[in-house]
Amino acid sequence: MKRTFHTEVAYAIGLTALAFGTALMERADFGMSMVVAPAYLIYLKVSEYLNWFTFGMAEYCFQAFLIIVLALVLHRFRRKYLFSFLTAFIYGNVLDVMMKAVNLIPGNGIPLKIACYCLGLVVCAIGVALLFKTYISPEAYELFVKEISLEYNFNINKTKTVYDCCSCMIAIAMSFLFVGFGHFEGVKLGTVICALVNGWIIGKCSSFLEKHFDFIDAFNFRKSFD
Predict the structure, then answer these.
(1) Does residue 219 form part of some domain?
(2) pLDDT at residue 121 greater than cutoff 60
(3) SS (HEC) of the chain
(4) Domain span at residue 25?
(5) pTM higher than 0.70, yes or no?
């Protein structure tokens, strides 16, 4: 029999896992996830001039821009888009905490970096898969994929892969254009690998979750997020 997994718990765990996985990948320095790479590049550039500007701040600023783009593409603005920004704000602050925690890990050798990268990749995929199971508005990245796939009846995992590849290309262009980032800071081999396999891993995680759990709302708040 399947176990009950409350969607609100899936939201909390998914958001925390996503922040932790992102922090691990930053620690590995093999290249950020293609999804967060644009925001990471903004963080690197702006923090050169504003030392108080954090990765988390760059995340929710960039996601606010992405929500605006989504509204323009679909020619509508829904209340859940505001909740998505709130999720991005919470995620940004959790990410800053996770960044500080992960940076306390001693050592800087290649084996440690490989372990951080692989673990971060899987943890991020689990986080995204969990966020897809909840009614609470996910981050703008996941919201964009979810809304586009529903609007045009696309397979959500394939849509995710296409979005990831596009995000990777944008990040490469940003890294090349930013002064001092001609060596593709934040966009490395790990970013390309992530772009190619992330959608597949998320699909496997989603299948596992669906096989073993029934996602049920603990509270009657679903209509509030429509």
Answers:
(1) no
(2) yes
(3) CCEEEEHHHHHHHHHHHHHHHHHHHHHHCCCCCCCCHHHHHHHHHHCCCCCCCCHHHHHHHHHHHHHHHHHHHHCCCCHHHHHHHHHHHHHHHHHHHHHHHHCCCCCCCHHHHHHHHHHHHHHHHHHHHHHCCCCCCCCHHHHHHHHHHHHHCCCHHHHHHHHHHHHHHHHHHHHHHCCCCCCCCCCCHHHHHHHHHHHHHHHHHHHHHHHHEEEECCCCCHHHHC
(4) 3-214
(5) yes
